[in-house]
Amino acid sequence: MNSITKRWLTGSLLITLIALILAEAVFLVANRQSYYSGVEQAILSRFSSISGQLKMNVGPTAAATAQARSLALRRMVEQFDAKDKFEFMLLDADGGLIATSSGYLPADGEGDWSAELDAAVEAGGTARRIYTSAAGEQVLAITMLTPYAAEDVAALRMSTSLELVDDALSQNAVISLALIAVILGFSLWSGLFFVRSIVNPLGQVENIAARIARGDLSARLPETDNKNDEIGRLCTTINQMAEDLSKTEKLKNDFISSVSHELRTPLTSIRGWVETIAQIRDPEDENYRKGIAIIGRETDRLYDMVEELLDFSRMQNGIKMELTPLDLVAELTDAALFVEARIKQQGLRLVYEEPDLPLPILGDAGRLRQVFINVLDNAIKYSSPGGAITLDLLDDGENAYVIIRDEGRGIAPDDLENVKLKFFKGKGAVRGSGIGLAVVDEIITAMDGTVDITSELGKGTAVKIRLPLYIPGRARPDP
Length: 479
Known about the structure:
- The chain is α+β, with helices and mostly antiparallel strands.
- Helix content is 55%, strand content 17%.
- The protein has 10 helices and 12 strands.
- The chain has helices spanning 2-56, 62-78, 114-123, 163-213, 230-278, 286-315, 328-345, 365-381, 413-416, 436-446, and strands at residues 87-91, 97-100, 126-132, 138-150, 153-161, 324-327, 349-352, 360-363, 388-395, 399-405, 450-456, 460-468.
- Strand 4 and strand 5 (153-161) form a beta hairpin.
- Helix 4 (163-213) packs parallel to helix 5, helix 7 (328-345) runs parallel beside helix 8 (365-381) and helix 8 (365-381) packs antiparallel against helix 10 (436-446).
- The longest helix is centred in the N-terminal third of the chain and has 55 residues, at 2-56.
């Protein structure tokens, strides 16, 4: 059972972990881009506002206009209202610093932003740069060429520290990692709970199946709360299997006991008469002749029983039959003639009117004769003297029906549904192995037919055998 848990841990949980890691990576990249883009848009928005203000500064001449705009830019730097967030600079054509909102003027050689100015020129007006300051902070700087002539002012530069942004990104990363840990923990808990809800019942199934395999047919699985899911249906199937095995085991034991008794009775009779005949010297003696007759009759009885058992044994490996076109009327008539003398001997009447027209079927003549003799034998055994055994042969154009009725004791309703089971012997059963009707059902089923039995206690039993009529060109049933 541990292998299921391991497979889930290395399969489903690993996939979940990889998916969460990928989602975290995408989130962090997107979050960083979003924050940085926000800061960049804030700077560009201020540049746009400055450009708009510069456009409004117009003098009588171009030189006057340039001078007015230069003064306006210096005034904007001095009066810059976001000094705590951004640093606003004015750069000359060489990238040197003209003015800054922080008030800090670098010494000669310290303030050179020519590279950023060149980048803005190459980019067509605006350049963006992220770098690490001397204090170790991430800084975002955007340099924009002056949109209008403003004397010596060649470019506007605005920069801001990304420390607060990076702190926010770090907090978001910690929160997202914590969320991933919670999701992963919940997935692990719920997954293990679900896996155990499968593994534990399967462990019970394994234990019960092992007990059943060792012969403990009383072992049963506990009923589950939900019988409609796979586990519930499996438990129900295992319990039903154990019930059927227990029933089959009982039938087998009853069968062995019954067959042992059935074999012992004729053998005892034969042995007794053999000992009696051994003491008689005169073959004309009445007891001698009686003993020989009984020995012959009991030997035939043993032979029939052994043949029935051998047939049953062979059927466990599948019935092999030679299916050829037959006349069902002729086969039933032969079977009726075969048992007619015995029916009269038992004080019974045979009612049978042979149809005038043949009924062609595909079948095995020997097996079909075995079916009819077996059913007729049961009818004789369970009928009282004076009763009638009736044979009817009908057809509906597609199937032929053989109906064998008797006026015997009938079959109890509780036994009727089991009479075709192997080894079953119902209440009030007389001699026999209990597998005759099981053999009949096997043979008829192999011929693509069916056997239906109806009965009423005290009034008799009817066995209805259906076989498909032989129609040339129609597919033959598999034997």
